[in-house]
Amino acid sequence: MKNGNLSHWGETLSRLLLYPGDDEETLLSKQVWFGIACLSFVLGAIALVVYWCLSMVVLVFLMAGFCAFFLASILLFLRLRKYVEWFFVSSEVFKILFSFAAVVITGGILTSGGFVFLGFAGIYFTLFFPRPEKARSLLLLYLSVLSLEALLQPWLRPLVAFSATENLVLFVLYFMASLLPLYFFVRIFFRERIRFRQQEAGKLRALDAARSRFFTNISHEFRTPLTVILGMADQIQEAPAAMPGEAALLIRRNGKKLLRLVEQLLDLSKLEAGALQAHFVQADVVMELKYLLESFHSLAETKGISLHFSCQQEELWMDTDPEKLEHLLGNLLDNAIKYTPAGGAVQLAVSSRQLAVGPSALSTASCLLLTVTDTGIGIPPEHLERIFDRYYRVGEWPTEGAGIGLAMAREYARLLDGHIEVDSRPGEGSSFSVFLPVRNNAPRRTHSLSSPAPDIGPKPTAKTTSEKTAPASRPRLLIIEDNPDVIRYLQLFLEESYDLITASDGEEGTNLAIARVPDIIISDIMMPKKDGLEVCRALKGDFRTNHIPIILLTAKTDVDSRVSGLECGADAYLAKPFHRRELEVELRKLIQLRDTLRRKYGSSLSAPLPESKPIGLDERFLYDVRQCLEKHYQDEAFGIKALCAVMSVSRTQLHRKLAALTGRPASHFIRAFRLEKARQLLQTTRLAVNEVAYAAGFKDPYYFSRVFSREFGVSPSEAREGISGGTG
């Protein structure tokens, strides 16, 4: 309770003394001086009462002047709340001069009753100056006064005389009254200074960590477009005649993205140096915004997002910096498209507002309101206050970003004498409103803008390559990537060798993997809804998909990120920009490894079931299937449908899982299991061939003989006689 009261009084005093622009150390100096001044007034009042009781009228008037000075200083300081250094100097100079006057009146240093310590305390209180180096002048003043007192000692005659006992007692009391507050305030001051230094060191560490994250994130931002640019350059070099137009457009669009990032970095360095300025011209902002929006249509179309523009008027001429306006709206549109899922919408609305409706900080009668609205993932409420901070990234946003886009957007708005507001609800979308003053003071721009040549992005591709035209032997490859240019680049060199499926986010990719059970998966890490690590954990923890090799592609190249990916179960980890041949080799090696395991599992039908259930998910799945068939293989009605019900999987999942593990689809696996049981019966019993067929779950002995011969290379009769044959 006591600490709570002290904290409350401390906060009240801080609010009382705070002046706009004060930092923590200045406020601490104010608090210390205010405490010293109040304590000096109280001690002076006590001394006045003591001298009154001793009937020392001269000293009563002297102490009354002392108290009056500090009371006036306190009231004046509360009025100004500024110039704390001036108050420090004036109060300490007053103490030194007051000490000199009191020593003279009492007849010298040794008979002063301790007044000499007032000047002594004044010197040490200068330790609390905002700039302690100025204490040297006060020290010289005190030493000069002390020397003068010593020189004048032979000629001094006391106006007030203390007895020996009074002089000793007052001497000790003044010493204690000077020393104890000094100890108290020095302790508080240096404790708070240490706390400030620790806080400052923490802030510097946080800033350093934020800068490190920024450079890491900006390198990620560079790596994704570089993957497309370098990959398409390799494609052009290897096959110059193959789709040069599409390759050029992909390179151009990703090159422009890199250029925007470089320009942002340059503007950031100028901003930190205080050199970022706006160059106003009078232009038609409606035309400027239409021109800007055209460059985002391609990106929106490739992500399946509709982009809309609405404006209340055909043209609006006003002062603006076209370059800063482009960067401002470009960042907002880029974010809106990045965090909006396929099928969503992004709108740029332009309207005019009067000052009474707009922000009060604007100095003109009307303002331009630019609103970028999306139907994306939204921003959690706890992050809204910090999203405009430099290097800050919302932790829940599962896409790559440098953490400067919104910070720079706010700075661009300030350069244009406006400001930016945000309204967002998680799961519903966000709305960013930019208020800019409408003025017509700058020179009018004479040249006009021509409509930009739109970038024609990669043609929308179906989620799955047509299986009717694809060879049955081709492996099925699932690509999980939210960047359409990277997807298109991968399609260009993988579609000839693989049956491709694509997903634009982690959640869709997980669902497709479970439903379609591909042979191999390529996944990015930074994606909406579910990142690549979550996808990897989900698929590797599910018996239906845990056998599928997963290659993680990411711009995160540090060791910790690679270890995290591998710990989640990833079979390979490639950093962007990767080389095409490196990816092709990884795909081929992983598929070959699955083929080796498939042959191993496929040849295990003849082995007896282990006594205990295996630990591995693949082995456990096969154990459960074989155990189920062991119970029901004699029932000729027991087929795929019944096995799916027992295993709690769909027909497609069972088919793809067994095919991936054993090389046999579900129907062939069940038949092979029954044939193996039939061969064992032929070799261990004297049952007739047709009886063996019925015992193994075959209802047609002629069909049984035909498939038995195809499977083992010998007829059932030859198998009984011990004639060896090959397996089919």
Beta-strand segment tally? 12
- Proportion of residues in extended strands: 5-15%
The domain count comes to 4
Q: Structural class of the secondary structure composition? A: alpha/beta
| Low-pLDDT stretches | 1-6, 356-364, 448-471
* Mean of all residue-level pLDDT scores: 76
Calculate the terminal CA-CA distance, rounded to whole Å.
Answer: 86 Å
Shape: elongated
Strand order of the largest sheet: 2-4-5-7-6
C-alpha Rg (nearest Å): 42 Å
Question: In which range does the helix fraction lie?
Answer: 55-70%
Count of alpha/pi helices: 23
Major sheet description: 5 strands, mixed
Describe this structure in words.
The chain is α/β, with parallel strands linked by helices and 728 residues long. The protein folds into four domains: 17-205; 277-437, Heat Shock Protein 90 (2-Layer Sandwich); 476-602, Response regulator (Rossmann fold, 3-Layer(aba) Sandwich); 617-721, Homeodomain-like (Arc Repressor Mutant, subunit A, Orthogonal Bundle), CATH 1.10.10. The protein has helices at 2-17, 24-53, 57-80, 84-106, 116-124, 135-152, 164-238, 244-272, 285-302, 322-338, 405-415, 484-494, 506-516, 532-540, 559-567, 580-602, 617-632, 640-647, 651-662, 666-684, 689-695, 701-712, 716-721, and strands spanning 281-284, 306-311, 317-320, 345-354, 366-374, 419-425, 429-437, 476-480, 499-503, 520-524, 550-554, 572-575. It has a five-stranded mixed sheet, with helices on one face. Strands 9-8-10-11-12 form a five-stranded parallel sheet, sandwiched between helices. A two-stranded antiparallel sheet has the order 1-3. Helix 15 (559-567) links the parallel strand 11 (550-554) and strand 12 (572-575). Helix 2 (24-53) runs antiparallel to helix 7 (164-238), helix 13 (506-516) packs parallel to helix 14 and helix 16 crosses helix 19. The longest helix has 75 residues, at 164-238. The protein is elongated and about 145 Å long. It starts with a helix and ends in a 7-residue tail after the last helix.
